[in-house]
Amino acid sequence: MRLSHSVLTALLICINSAAFANVEVTPPSNSELVLVNGKESVSTGKLTLDNGENQLALRYIGRYQQQGSQTQFSSDVMIMTFLAENTSLTITFPRIRSNSAADAFNREPKISLKDTSGVDIAFRQDKLIKDGMQLGRDYEKEIFEYNSSNQIAALGALAAPIAAKVQPNLLQVENVTKQANDPKQTDQINVGQMLDFWYQQADEETRKAFKLKINSKE
Question: pTM to 2 decimals?
Answer without folding.
Answer: 0.64
